[in-house]
């Protein structure tokens, strides 16, 4: 494997090589240094050492070159043209670290036993990093960053302020609570372990190690486990069909590219699929602005005190749904199952159960449909109202030049979530329109659900309440002038 950039490769997109045949600097030194942080430059050196070390261990040559990119940290570029289907990475399993290594570890195995794989890997990372040069993995571990940009590591005030309204806030809080519990339990287990450096085992060190593992460990679907993969964890993300996976026959971790790359292009892999933007940010510390499959989750359940609830549970169980159940809601689309579930939850006459189908978008009866749509509308409204600012505010924020990284990603996330909610509400409103007023024999529009119309209006009013409140304040101000 080649790590030092040959002259022909120097200078492609964002590369900031500093060793060996140094490229002639085209930019003033200050600008050049801005392009790769000092930490990344050190990690780039470490990547060179790691490459040598891996080669000495018989690591096969890869068509990749580690480089530094101003906005993505380290990454990998192709050292030759790659065609769709070519393997950009092919790494024998003995060069990876997995739960198997954790389970066989002489010091941390018993503490990690029965715990989440990622917790085990975080413990492994902390212990092996603490051993420094005594660790057989030292050249690999030197390439790891000390922490990540995950909101899990933000100050609590930053989380509260920047993520208010977003689904990320509750997720971060839940995950931190669970991490704290895990940390306390681990501390208790490890306290009698003389080989473990307890003085270094603080909650913030554990959190940082966990966030590093969270952002770098690759889930290999065919092996059904997470792995730390040298070089695999230096590939940056771009949404595509290129996924790292385990090849059972070859016993290698492989990345087949799904498009053509020219020599010198940065090679990408697609990180975890099926993550909400909030989960993606928590896991990787950035957001994929190009991802068209962004989604949020809407949770629905049964009505408390419903005498038909036992029957409804059975029906749900049969189709593999739980109580409550989360459904993904995308920009421009939401699953029929979300509607059907809510329709079922609102049924008050068991005779209507026969009309429930999870395969098709079938209305049970108009009253039921009305309630269903209104409830979903109300849920979206409530979520939208929990943000402290509007989509326009976020768009203005994103135009500011002096934004910090955290302010930027938080505004991107809020905007993404609000767009999905607003879009879903438009879709629900379109479905509601014909139900709210259907033509009667006399030709007038009659509302078939006038008894529950008030509820609908109330939902609409709640949504405009902040604006009305603001207007009333402004009116008051004006009248005081
Ligand atoms: C598996 S590592 C990839 C290598 C990493 N860039 C490094 O310096 O070690 C994942 C991390 O890379 C960064 N990253 C990957 N793809 C990115 C992208 N498209 N935009 C911004 N950052 C990205 C994020 O910090 C993410 O947590």
Features:
481 residues; alpha+beta; Beta-clip-like; set domain protein methyltransferase, domain 1; set domain protein methyltransferase, domain 2; 3 domains; 4-stranded mixed β-sheet; 3-stranded antiparallel β-sheet; 46% helix; globular; disordered N terminus; disordered C terminus; binds S-adenosylmethionine
**Corresponding CATH architecture of the largest domain:** Alpha-Beta Complex
Q: Which percent range fits the helix content? A: 40-55%
* β-sheet strand percentage: 5-15%
Q: How many domains?
A: 3
How many whole angstroms does the radius of gyration measure? 27 Å
**Overall number of strands:** 14
CATH topology grouping of the largest domain: set domain protein methyltransferase, domain 2
Question: Please, how many helices?
Answer: 16
The ligands found in this model are:
S-adenosylmethionine
Along the chain, the helix and strand elements come as: HHEEEEHHHHHHHEEEEEEHEHEHHHHEEH
N-C termini distance: 75 Å
Q: Characterize the overall form.
A: globular
Structural class: alpha+beta
Major β-sheet profile = 4 strands, mixed
Mean pLDDT: 86
What are the segments in which pLDDT stays under 50 over at least 5 consecutive residues? 1-35, 438-446, 448-481
- CATH homologous superfamily name of the largest domain? Rubisco LSMT, substrate-binding domain
Look at the structure and give the CATH class of the largest domain: Alpha Beta
Strand order of the largest sheet: 1-2-10-7
Brief summary of the model shown:
46% of the residues lie in helices and 12% in strands.
């Amino acid at each position: 494997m080649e790590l030092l950039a040959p002259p022909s490769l120097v200078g492609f997109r964002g590369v900031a090589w500093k060793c060996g045949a140094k490229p002639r600097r085209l930019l003033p030194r200050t600008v050049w240094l801005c392009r790769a942080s000092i930490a990344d430059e050190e990690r780039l050196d470490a990547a060179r050492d790691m490459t040598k070390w891996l080669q000495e261990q018989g690591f096969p040559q890869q068509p990749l070159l580690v480089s530094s990119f101003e906005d993505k940290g380290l990454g990998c570029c192709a050292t030759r043209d790659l065609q769709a289907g070519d393997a950009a990475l092919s790494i024998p399993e003995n060069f990876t670290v997995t739960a198997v290594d954790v389970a066989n570890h002489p010091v941390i195995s018993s503490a990690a036993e029965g715990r989440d794989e990622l917790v085990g890997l975080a413990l492994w990372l902390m212990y092996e990093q603490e051993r420094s040069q005594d660790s057989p993995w030292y050249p690999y571990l030197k390439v790891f960053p000390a922490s990540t940009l995950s909101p899990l590591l933000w100050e609590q005030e930053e989380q509260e302020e920047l993520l208010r309204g977003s689904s990320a806030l509750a997720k971060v809080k839940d995950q931190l609570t669970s991490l704290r519990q895990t940390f306390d339990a681990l501390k208790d287990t490890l306290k009698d372990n003389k080989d473990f450096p307890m003085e270094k085992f603080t909650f913030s060190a554990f959190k940082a190690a966990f966030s590093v593992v969270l952002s770098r460990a690759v889930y290999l679907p065919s092996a059904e486990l997470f792995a730390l993969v040298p070089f695999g964890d230096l590939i940056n993300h771009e949404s595509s069909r290129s996924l790292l996976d385990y090849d059972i026959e070859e016993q290698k971790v492989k990345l087949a590219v799904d498009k053509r790359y020219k020599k010198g292009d940065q090679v990408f892999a697609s990180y975890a699929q099926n993550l909400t933007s909030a989960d993606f940010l928590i896991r990787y510390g950035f957001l994929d602005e190009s991802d068209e499959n962004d989604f949020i989750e809407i949770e629905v359940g049964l009505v408390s005190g419903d005498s038909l609830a036992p029957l409804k549970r059975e029906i749900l169980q049969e189709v593999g749904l739980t109580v409550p159940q989360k459904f993904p809601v995308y920009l421009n689309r939401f699953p029929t199952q979300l509607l059907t579930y809510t329709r079922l939850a609102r049924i008050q006459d068991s005779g209507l159960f026969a009309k429930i189908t999870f395969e098709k978008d079938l209305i049970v009866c108009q009253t039921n449909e009305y309630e269903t749509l209104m409830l979903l509308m109300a849920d979206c409204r409530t979520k939208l109202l929990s943000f402290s600012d509007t989509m326009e505010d976020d768009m203005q924020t994103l135009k500011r030049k002096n934004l910090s990284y955290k302010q930027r990603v938080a505004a991107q996330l809020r905007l993404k979530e609000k767009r999905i909610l607003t879009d879903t509400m438009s879709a629900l409103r379109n479905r509601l329109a014909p139900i709210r007023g259907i033509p009667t024999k006399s030709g007038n529009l009659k509302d078939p659900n006038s008894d529950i119309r008030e509820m609908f209006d109330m939902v609409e009013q709640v949504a405009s309440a902040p604006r009305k409140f603001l207007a009333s304040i402004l009116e008051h101000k004006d009248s005081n002038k």
